[in-house]
Specification:
Number of helices: 15
Distance between the termini: 42 Å
Strand order of the largest sheet: 3-2-1-4-5-6-7
Order of helices and strands: EHEEHEHEHHEHEHEHEHEHEHEHEHHHE
Helix content: 40-55%
Structural class: alpha/beta
Length: about 425
């Protein structure tokens, strides 16, 4: 797909208020957006916290470290105030010393920093919205929804949501949330759903059958058992505890399966929980999996699960599952419906018994499971390509950076999947 007219590339200051790169969630969206924009000829500089994994293909500018919080990884924390002050300073120095065309800020802290820089530098601001800040703080148990700070935090979030000239959302549900709950002008909202690299996430994971069997053996997975896989953060708001309760229910029912849980943090906590539930020999924890190795580990699964409970955050792991031709069981929340549509097998949100029912329905019907997996890859190929997302982002940059009479569309508009316009008969168990 080619641009409608040649032009110099944009130089983008991307603000990432997190320990980029880590192997989960929002980091993957930041990474894939930056990679895709560079592949389309743009230049990206990422300002981020002092911790994180450097990637050779990306220019990353880090803050100075803070001596009192060296082990910070994920989640809401009062220490992030200090991190964000340092990130503001790093971003300001970059913006004043170098020539950028626009600011692309991730998450609400990034949008707040970007909003100030936008006023100082007069550069347009794009806000990459990946879920409600207030809802995330509640999910992380950092904020009490009945406490005195809830409404002020919601007010601050609403103010941040209106700082940018354009907002990219990781789902149509998030776009609806901004318009409905925060009264954001619909003309500023652009759904750019999470996407997936189909060449990277492919069903065999780049492994032969013998290599997959050898890797299963190394992980202690019995070769005859079907494997349920999860890859992501291990936290209660991601549904890790519900998944273990569901696994214990499946074992109680004497359903033949093995659970492979991949990710971090809190591995020790959940491993002990699995032991207490009688799951020794039935579940394997790998710890952190580098993103570059994700397809090789996902290829070990027969069924995938995404038991996330949040109503507002994205769930990009579902698209990776779908690209791997893995039939997917998820709690029945809007983002899961948006990605999976009628191809998902759904459980009542937060209910481990319903989750066990949904998993069991696929374990006892492998033919149906294979069919759902194959059709899932076809769906992501049609709706969720990073290249398509990249051209859409560039068209938004054009509208902000070029005079209206000169800016022309770079590409056809993205094909956005709307679950409300599709069949809604995905199984709910």
């Amino acid at each position: 797909m080619a641009s409608s007219s040649p032009r110099a590339p944009y130089h983008i200051l991307m603000i990432a208020p997190t320990s980029f790169f880590a192997d989960y969630g929002c980091h993957v969206r930041i990474l894939e957006e930056a990679r895709t924009l560079q592949e389309l000829g743009q230049k990206v500089t990422i300002a981020t916290y002092y911790k994180g994994r450097d990637l050779p293909e990306l220019e990353i500018a880090r803050t100075r470290p803070v001596p009192w919080r060296e082990e910070y990884e994920v989640g809401s924390s009062r220490h992030k105030i200090a991190f964000d002050v340092l990130l503001s300073w790093t971003s300001l120095k970059l913006a004043l010393r170098r020539r950028f065309d626009l600011i692309h800020a991730h998450l609400h802290e990034g949008a707040l920093i970007g909003g100030v820089l936008s006023k100082i530098t007069r550069l347009p601001l794009v806000f990459d919205f990946q879920g409600s800040m207030t809802a995330e703080m509640v999910d992380h148990r950092f904020l009490n929804p009945d406490g005195p700070w809830y409404k002020p935090t919601l007010w601050v979030e609403g103010h941040i949501n209106r700082l940018a000239q354009a907002i990219l959302t990781s789902s149509q549900h998030a776009a609806d949330l901004l318009e409905r709950e925060f009264d954001v002008d619909a003309r500023c909202i652009h759904p750019v759903p999470d996407a997936v690299n189909l060449g990277f996430f492919r069903p065999d994971g780049g492994l032969s059958q013998a290599e997959r069997q050898a890797r299963k053996a190394a992980l202690g997975i019995p070769p005859e058992r079907p494997v349920i896989i999860y890859l992501g953060l291990l936290t209660d708001y991601q549904g890790t505890d519900k998944l273990l309760y569901a696994a214990a229910e499946l074992r109680r029912r004497q359903v033949d399966a093995h659970l492979l849980i991949m990710g971090y943090p809190n591995v020790v906590h959940y491993r002990q929980m699995a032991t207490d539930l009688g799951l020794d020999g039935w579940v394997t924890f790998t710890g952190r999996i580098p993103y570059e190795q994700a397809p090789q580990y996902l290829a070990l699964g027969d069924i995938a699960t995404a038991p996330k409970i949040s109503d507002t955050e994205g769930s990009g792991k579902i698209l990776n599952y779908m690209a791997m031709e893995l039939p997917t069981v998820a709690f029945d929340v809007p983002v899961s419906r948006e990605f999976l549509a009628e191809l998902g097998v759904y459980a009542e949100p937060g209910n481990p018994h319903s989750l066990a029912d949904a998993l069991q329905s696929l374990l006892v019907d492998p033919e149906r499971a294979r069919s759902l997996g194959q059709r899932s890859r076809e769906r992501v190929a049609e709706h969720y390509s990073w290249e398509q997302a990249g051209w859409h982002i560039l068209s938004i940059y054009d509208r902000l950076c070029q005079p209206a009479e000169k800016a022309r569309p770079r590409a056809k508009p993205m094909t956005i999947s709307n679950p409300r316009a599709e069949h809604q008969e995905g199984d709910r168990l």
